[in-house]
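Hi P.,

Sorry for the delay on this. The queue was packed all week, but I finally got your sequence through. Input first:
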Amino acid sequence: PRPDDFRGEIFFHAEQQVLGSELPVAICRLGEIYGPSRNWIPAFKWGVWESKKDDPYMNMIHVEDAAAFIPVLFDKGEYGKVYVGVDDRPVLRSEFTKWMNKKLGIKNSDIPQRQVSGKRLKNTRLKALGFKFRYPDFEKGYADLIRNTSRELNNARKRA
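Then the structure:
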């Protein structure tokens, strides 16, 4: 790892201290967690999804996969190892924006090309433990969220 901000440096140094202790530990680094009550759908619908100066990679994991992976780590993980909890597909913010706009029916095709930045994280160690993702990429996870959000809105309209 090469932390590129102060927060990342703090986390990295904390991990090194824990790994250097005599405790039997493994480290779990989770990517951006999303799910039913924690996602970007409202930002898109309300028009507040913001453009960045660059085009960073987003490394995400659905909350259900994050929760399911923790027991696997306890059961099969090795002490002294670092496991990265992200899905199979890092995605550029611009690609995520285009996909979300299309799925949500938002007419905003003007997404400027910017300098690619950020890191593409890999879940190789996690998958080596035999972990299987329910949502192996953002498309499957967000498609499910969008479907459920639409269903909830329709049910609320019927009740009103």
